[in-house]
């Protein structure tokens, strides 16, 4: 699963963009990828220095601001581009403050925001727009009927619309359907919509997401069955309380109608039972896949070839892949927990490359960004579950992992320990044991004869940890051990690294002086 050459080049360009001289015009695909990498840069670096001083000319088509640090320079760059797809995501920091201030009412007016971001050409050619909010329930975004009409007039080519987590009022939804009859994709997940009245106007709809919506009666969804071209439908739920389960499947059955072209149905955590599943499969002859994770179904039914569940390692990996594409953290975590269980007892029969690729992708997307929050989130985060799965893979099949992938794993594990908070010596036993396991995995990868590590980078990180945790015996011992292994095996010949170690040799002397080896706590070996 070694990264493609293009992926490596994209990352290298993004990390060193200020070093490039002369006018460089990128194609749209490369522009999208490099810009996406740059958006991950922390706010204090994503500034005029990058966007105004670089000579690289972007040719952007698809932009996703979700989770990015957006500033005025970002907006200025977007205004120059001719976009076909745009995802706003969770509006943060400078842009959010500016929009709230300029709109004059302390709220985020979607129409005002789009006018600010898009030039005339983008307004004319934009096909996909996602103005949904992924992080906060019912963000303070204005999305009223008047805006709907104006947005539809502003964006005549729009075919795909995401409005998840936005609060609707009165007849907003029916107005949406009236104003956007050409939609082929619609996401109204996690909104307060209680009825699908008006949805029959969307006769071109191909994909519909109704995730986490609850309806009181079958009459609230009866118009859904007028969508004769609908092929992909998401009615998944998340059961907060067993006492108040969703009844979406029951309501659908009462409608006594079918969706003739339906091929994919997500019923995660709904009331789908054995009889309902049989009914669906019998009445929808084109239905090829049904997601049934945590539905009240017997295992025999979940193992049906048309069902996607977590009853085996392969099916759990398929679930993870599906939820990863949708960035569904809650269900990704559930899938990873099942995968971890299967890996802990599995032999070597599973697809190593598939498993390694999927789980490592999760760590890249979902890692904890704030070190100070790690202690509260470590045991429940998607990122932590993914790291635990990678641990099991290394323990069971390290000899089969490609050297370059071993290097990637070492970086993931080291990145993980770098995010540990201070005061490791005072951690509860379970957290300390997890820390011990991560350090042992790093040392094991360093000892590997085939691992192609960037040893200079590892030593720099280890010395940085020595400085940061200089009063903590636990981290001092492990970081010192990593540096010692790299030096003793002759992996380091850089004068810069040698000088770095000399400048902080007092830390190494302190480790030796305290006799850390004799004071080390004993844990179950990895």
UniProtKB/TrEMBL annotation:
PROSITE patterns in the cross-refs: LRR (PS51450)
Gene Ontology CC: Cul2-RING ubiquitin ligase complex
Name of the molecule in the record: Protein NLRC3
Organism expressing this protein natively: Caenorhabditis elegans
């Amino acid at each position: 699963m070694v990264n493609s050459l293009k992926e490596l080049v994209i990352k290298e360009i993004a990390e060193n963009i200020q070093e490039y001289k002369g006018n460089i015009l990128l194609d749209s695909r490369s522009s999208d990828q490099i810009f996406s990498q740059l958006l991950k840069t922390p706010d204090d670096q994503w500034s005029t220095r990058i966007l105004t001083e670089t000579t690289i000319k972007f040719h952007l088509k698809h932009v996703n601001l979700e989770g990015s640090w957006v500033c005025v320079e970002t907006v200025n760059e977007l205004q120059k581009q001719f976009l076909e797809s745009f995802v706003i995501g969770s509006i943060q920091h400078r842009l959010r403050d500016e929009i709230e201030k300029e709109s004059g009412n302390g709220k985020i007016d979607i129409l005002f925001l789009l006018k600010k971001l898009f030039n005339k050409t983008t307004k004319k050619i934009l096909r996909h727009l996602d103005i949904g909010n992924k992080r906060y329930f019912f963000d303070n975004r204005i999305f009223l009927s008047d805006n709907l009409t104006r947005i539809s007039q502003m964006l005549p080519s729009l075919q795909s619309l995401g409005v998840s987590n936005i609060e609707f009022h009165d007849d907003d939804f029916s107005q949406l359907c009236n104003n956007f009859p050409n939609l082929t994709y619609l996401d109204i997940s996690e909104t307060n919509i209680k009825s699908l009245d008006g949805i029959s106007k969307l006769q071109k709809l191909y994909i519909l997401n109704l995730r986490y919506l609850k309806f009181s009666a079958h009459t609230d969804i009866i118009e859904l069955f007028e969508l004769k071209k609908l092929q992909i439908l998401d009615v998944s739920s998340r059961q907060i309380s067993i006492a108040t389960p969703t009844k979406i499947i029951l309501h659908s059955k009462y409608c006594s109608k079918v969706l003739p072209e339906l091929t994919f149905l997500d019923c995660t955590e709904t009331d789908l039972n054995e009889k309902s599943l049989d009914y669906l499969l019998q009445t929808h002859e084109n239905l090829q896949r049904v997601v049934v994770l945590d539905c009240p179904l017997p295992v025999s039914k979940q193992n049906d070839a048309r069902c996607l569940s977590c009853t085996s390692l392969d099916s759990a990996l398929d679930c993870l892949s599906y939820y990863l594409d949708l960035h569904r953290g809650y269900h990704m975590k559930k899938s990873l927990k099942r995968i971890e269980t299967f890996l802990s007892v599995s032999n070597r029969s599973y697809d190593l490359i598939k498993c390694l690729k999927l789980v490592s992708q999760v760590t890249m997307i979902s890692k904890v960004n704030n070190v100070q929050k790690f202690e509260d989130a470590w045991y429940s985060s998607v990122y932590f579950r993914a790291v635990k799965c990678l641990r099991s893979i290394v323990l069971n099949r390290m000899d089969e992992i490609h050297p370059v992938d071993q290097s990637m794993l070492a970086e993931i594990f080291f990145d993980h320990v770098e995010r540990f908070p201070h005061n490791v010596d005072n951690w509860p036993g379970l957290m300390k044991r997890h820390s011990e396991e991560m350090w042992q995995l790093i040392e094991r990868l360093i000892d590997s004869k085939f691992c192609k590590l960037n040893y200079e980078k590892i030593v720099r990180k280890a010395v940085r940890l020595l400085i940061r945790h200089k009063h903590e015996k636990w981290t001092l011992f492990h970081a010192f051990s990593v540096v010692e292994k790299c030096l003793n095996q002759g992996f380091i010949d850089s004068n810069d690294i040698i000088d770095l170690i000399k400048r902080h040799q007092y830390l190494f002397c302190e480790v030796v002086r305290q006799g850390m080896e004799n004071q080390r706590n004993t844990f179950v070996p990895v």
